[in-house]
Amino acid sequence: MNRIVFLTVFCCAALLLSCDKEREIILNQYGKPAEDAELSAGTATIFSVGKSSYDTPAKWVTGDLLTRFYSGDRLYDNPRTSAADDPRQGGKGPLYAGSSCGSCHNNAGRTYPTLFSNGGSGNSGFSSILIYITKKNGGFFRNYGRVLHDQSIFGVEAEGKLKVSYTYETFALPDGEQYELATPRYEIEEWYADRIAPEDLIIDVRIPLRHVGMGQIMALDPDELQTLERQSNYPEYGISGKLNRIQDRYVDMPGVGGNKANHSDLTVELGFSSDLGVTNDRYPLEVAEGQSQMAGYSHYGIQISTHDMEDVDLYLSTLGVPARRNVNDPVVQRGEENFYRAKCHLCHTSTLHTRPTAPVLINGTRLPWLSSQTIHPYSDFLLHDMGTGLDSEYKAGLAMGSEWRSTPLWGIGLQQTVNGHTRFLHDGRARNFLEAIMWHGGEGAVSRSLFAGMSKEDRDALVMFLRSL
Ligand code: HEC
Ligand code: HEC
């Protein structure tokens, strides 16, 4: 890697002209938006700044659509109870991870998890994390599923509790500025059944993702994503992206959702089933069906209708995307230049397009407003090997343990305003933007070095640019 960094820096210094040219080519293809820098998602861009910046309908959401948006919003936010026979608000558990979608995605964002306030799982029905577990060989454990449910209703035992401890290490940037990285170590305690030996256990912890631009992400043009995958090959920077592919309802599709890009829809049915324990037409069995302690909890039937789930789907799909702020501030503009100089855009691609055909929701509703839009997600939705530091060993589809989807950065500058914290990366280990960047290894290592080698002023400007997103 060092040689690559050296060569890159050398080339750029010696051949400024050709670097400019390269930049121009990249900017023209997928690069910096010219006139519409503020318009993050075309006609779905919204301009309010505050706690509900992620949670505001696009302005074309009116009439019947708006009524359904609010119905979906309520179904999303209202805590479910364990009452088995209340179709609007019951059905929670017996095992679950959160009481409502909104408990983890507060204001359609990223709730501050108990990982940092409680050293792991929360004790009172709330954690705001998902804990994925597998065997070292990728298989699932018989008494547990893919997700370790760390919460349960009265009378049932949670599958286990997560504990985390952090090791702190201080590093110095080339100009002497110091920063600290916190490396997590995860363990499971209080297994409800067989204890699984740590040697045979892979634990992959995720904090919730922001819901910014979910409708647009689901409407991405698969042809453009495939073109992007073919183009994402920059040996000089050690970068090559890979599209995750998944079989969903027997159709082969590019994966775009989730940190491993292993979802091709909004996972509403999966969320109700696995995260909340609410059975539905697609997942009619309780998520822990088959566990001995589940006897007596099956056969409750369907606990949320497909019509209601479509309202949630509609709510998520029609959320507006916050406009960028301070685009004419010279520091922000300098930061934007630095974003390209550090090659961040080779993964956090600034401009993409939605496909010409209208997306269709789970119950058949069409949303033509989302088609043919120019959007600025700051992601290529491809998987990149981020090095051993971020390797959880957990695989999902084509994604290996160290491979993650470039997180879309649109709206990231408002996370502090919406959710009151700046925890970043899949498991929230980064406490601010600088740490998030310094965790970039593997394909992100050249970018990290280019950023680290900038003057403090330039690094700060880059962070100001991120805050304008
Ligand atoms: C216990 C916490 C928790 C609950 C409850 C929860 N989620 Fe999530 N959600 C997460 C986490 C963690 C992720 C990231 C998962 C990943 O990396 O794939 C996520 C990811 C998502 C994504 C993908 C986002 C993206 O950018 O690709 C969607 C959509 C989503 N959740 C919707 C829902 C819905 C709908 C519900 C309620 C039915 C729900 N979630 C309930 C924690 C939760
Ligand atoms: C090789 C591709 C690649 C490059 C280059 C890259 N990133 Fe990333 N970035 C990623 C991936 C993949 C993740 C998700 C990693 C994870 O969650 O573990 C990520 C995560 C982030 C996050 C955290 C997002 C969140 O909401 O948690 C920030 C901030 C970020 N990148 C900024 C940058 C900046 C700034 C640069 C340039 C200095 C950069 N990235 C260069 C791929 C890349």
Describe what this molecule looks like in 3D.
This protein has 469 residues and is an alpha+beta fold. The protein has one domain (2-467). 28% of the residues lie in helices and 14% in strands. It contains 14 helices and 16 strands. It has helices spanning 2-14, 16-30, 63-77, 101-104, 114-117, 214-218, 222-231, 268-275, 306-317, 330-341, 415-419, 433-438, 445-452, 456-467, and strands at 45-46, 95-96, 130-135, 151-152, 161-172, 178-189, 201-206, 233-234, 239-240, 244-248, 251-255, 321-322, 352-353, 374-375, 383-385, 403-405. The strands form eight sheets. A two-stranded parallel ribbon has the order 1-12. Strands 2-4 form a two-stranded antiparallel ribbon. A two-stranded antiparallel sheet has the order 3-7. Strand 10 (244-248) and strand 11 (251-255) form a beta hairpin. Helix 3 (63-77) crosses helix 9 and helix 10 crosses helix 14. The longest helix is centred in the first third of the chain and has 15 residues, at 16-30. The two termini are 30 Å apart. Mean pLDDT is 90; it is low at 1-31. Bound molecules: heme C (HEC) (2 copies). Residues 239, 259, 342-344, 346-348, 384, 386, 390, 404, 406-407, 412, 424-426, 433, 436-437, 440, 443-444, 447, 451, 466 line the site of one heme C.
